[in-house]
Amino acid sequence: MNLLGTCLLCLCCIGDVVGEDRIFYLGIREKEWNYNPGGMNIISGKPIDEDEQAKMYLQPGPNRIGNINMKAIYVQYTDDTYTVEIKQPAWQGLMGPIMRAEVGDTYIVHVRNFASRNYSCHPHGVDYNKKNEGALYPDNTSGNDKEDDGIPPNGSYTYHWRVVPDQGPSAEDNDCVVRLYHSHVNAPKDIGSGLIGALIICKEGVLSKTTQKKEFVLLFSLIDENLSWYLDHNINTYCSDPGSVDKEDEDFMESNKKPSINGFMYGTLPGLCMCDNTEVTWYMVGIGNEEDIHTPHFHGNVVTYQYSRVDTVSLFSASMIQVTMTPCNPGKWLLSCQVNDHYE
Q1: To 10 degrees, the CA torsion angle through 230, 236, 240, 242?
Q2: What are the Cα distances from residue 265, in Å, to 121, 214, 305, 321?
Q3: Fewer CB within a 10 Å sphere, N or C end of the chain?
Q4: Model pTM greater than 0.85?
Q5: HEC profile for 66-86?
Q6: Torsion of CA 285, 289, 295, 297, to 10 degrees
Q7: What does residue 203 show for φ and ψ, rounded to 5 degrees?
Q8: Which of 77-81, 231-235, 306-310 is least confident?
Q9: Which residue, among 265, 198, 199, 188, has the nearest Cα to 227 in the 3D structure?
C-alpha cells in the first residue's frame, strides 16, 4: 500500500509542469487608425485617388468614411501605472501586443479599460476557469464569475490563464505555436472595432535561449467596419456629408470592408525585413466570417508547412498556423492573399 501511494504521488508530480508567471499590463485605448499611410497603392504605384479599385475603400467623401477609422486597440504598458507604453514593431499594426509564454507558465494579464464602453480579454489555447474566461454569454454564472465578462470604462480586471501541456506545442510541432486573444463582450463587433492580439506559446526552455529566431505575426482579415462600435462616430467624423449616408446601402457597406494584413492595405505593411539564410517563423491567423477565406502567398521564396515545402497556405476564420522559411533569394518580394477579390 505504501509503495502504491508513493508511485501515485510520483506520477502526479511528473504530470504537473511548474513554470513561471508571465505578467502583462494591457490598456484598451481608442485611437485613429489609417489603413493606408502615405496615400499610395504601393503595388500599382498609383496614388489612392487615381486608383479606381483602391479609392472605393480608402477615399473619403460625402458618404464614404475612407482610410481613417476610430478603433479600440490593446496597448502594452510597463507597469500598473499605465503611463509608459511599450512600443510594438511597426509591422504589428492594429494587432495587440504579442504575449509569449512556455508550457507550464501562467499568464497574469492586468487589463485597464480606457475606452468608452465595456470590453474584455478572452484567450484561445490556454486553460482558465469561469472568472478568467473574459467572454460574455448566457452561461448561468453569477457574482464573481461574471466580473470578467466585461470591464467597464475606467475599470480594471486581472486574468489568470494557465499554459497546460495538452494545449501547447506537440512533439511534432515547431518550438512555438500561435493562438489568439480578443474582446468577447460582443465578439464580432469588438473584433471589428480592433481588439485582437496574439499569444505565442512555446515548449519549455525556448524563451530562455540566448538566440531568438526572427518571427512575424500576420492577421489576414477582411475587417468589417460596418460591425464596429464606432461606425456612427466614423460617419460623423470622416464623411463630409454624414447626413447623406445610408448605412444599408450596398456600396457604402462594401467600402467599409477592408481586406488587410495587420490593418494595412495596398502594400503599406512595413518592416518585414530579414537576412538570407536566416530562419524565420511566420505566425498567421485568420478571423472574421464566411468571407474570410485567405491564401497567403510568399513570392520568391518557399516556406515549410506540415513537413512540405509550399509557397501558399490556406487560412480560414479563427484558424492559426505557423510556417518556417529560410530565405535564400534576396530581393523585395510580394506577400499577398491570392483570393481574387482580396488580391484586387
Answers
A1: 110
A2: 26, 23, 26, 22
A3: N
A4: yes
A5: CCEEEEEEEEEECCCCCCCEC
A6: -50
A7: -70, 160
A8: 306-310
A9: 188
